[in-house]
Design brief:
The structure holds 2 protein chains of 2 kinds.
Chain A (H helix, E strand, L loop, with lengths): L17 E9 L1 H10 L21 H9 L7 E10 L6 E17 L2 E14 L4 E12 L1
Antiparallel strand pairs in A: 1-3, 2-5, 3-4, 4-5
Chain B lengths: L5 E6 L5 H11 L9 H6 L9 H15 L4 E9 L10 E10 L2 E9 L5 E10 L1
Antiparallel strand pairs in B: 1-3, 2-5, 3-4, 4-5
Classes of the chains: A mainly beta, B alpha+beta.
Chain lengths: ~140, ~130
């Protein structure tokens, strides 16, 4: 769905938008590669591995945000938060995201929009493993 | 662990183009801001900058090493400044409160020149 406001800028009206849920397969090799790049191939259950299923790794979500007026070129990562319920283990991972906040702010660097995505990462049986929150800073 | 106790700091490898390419591959974050100098310069940066999640990943590794056996319940950070090529980050943390088996703490990542790149908080149960 393409929703544009007059200035083609992501807007308060996008709050509540649900992005298309996405299924991934997490492999043992992927977990190992992620731990290794953080400098520790022995690292079990890396606390940030959910990022592999988050907005930065999801072209469909990035495209949806671009269509709403928030292109990748204007984004910076402001905040990230995880709440852990179960480890993300090899197998199916379902990633869900909702735009839960859109607010405008005037910073020293100029006008910004702060976009909050609320995330849920579940396993193939539907068990909630990790909840997340990503704050994206969009330069206007 | 008592209130005020510092967590064992972790010194991270310097940020290199190779590391950023490897992180892009491992994480699936292929934003060229982190791998292509021209894209980064067009965005007003001197050169490519590190993925914020790489820095948070290093801090997460510090937490795992400093609190072996503890279970992380919550981990949240704010990215305070871009991390540049050549930066050698140190990740640290401190216990700020304890309720029974639940520890509350703060974490940070700084460059060698003292610049704060990331600040955050966590909760972990023993």
């Amino acid at each position: 769905m393409v929703a544009r406001n007059e200035n083609h800028r992501i807007h308060h009206m996008h709050q509540g938008t649900i992005l298309p849920s996405t299924a991934y397969t997490l492999t043992e090799e992927r977990l190992q590669a992620f731990a290794t790049v953080l400098g520790d191939s022995e690292l079990r259950d890396p606390p940030t591995v959910a990022t592999c299923f988050g907005v930065w790794a999801n072209p469909a979500w990035l495209n949806a945000l671009r269509d709403m007026g928030a292109p990748l070129e204007q984004m910076l990562h402001g905040e990230e938060e995880y709440r852990y319920h179960q480890p993300l283990r090899p197998g199916t991972i379902i990633a869900e995201a909702t735009i839960t906040d859109v607010r405008e702010k005037i910073a020293q660097s100029g006008p910004l929009t702060l976009l909050t995505l609320t995330l849920r990462f579940s396993d193939g049986a539907g068990l909630l493993c990790v909840e997340g929150r990503t704050v994206i800073v969009v330069k206007r | 662990m008592h209130i005020g106790e510092t967590l064992t700091a972790l010194t991270c490898p310097p940020i290199t183009r190779e590391l950023l390419r490897a992180y892009a591959e491992a994480s699936g974050d292929h934003n060229p801001l982190h791998t292509d100098s021209a894209t980064a310069q067009a965005a007003g940066q001197p050169d490519v900058i590190a993925h914020g999640m790489l820095v948070m990943g290093f801090v997460g590794r510090m937490l795992r090493l400093a609190l072996p056996g503890a279970q992380l319940r919550r981990f949240g950070v704010r990215f305070r400044a871009p991390t540049y090529l050549g930066d050698e980050l140190t990740c640290g943390g401190r216990i700020t409160a304890r309720e029974g088996d639940l520890l509350h703490g703060e974490v940070w990542a700084t460059a060698a020149n003292g610049d704060l790149k990331l600040a955050g908080t966590f909760e972990a149960s023993l």
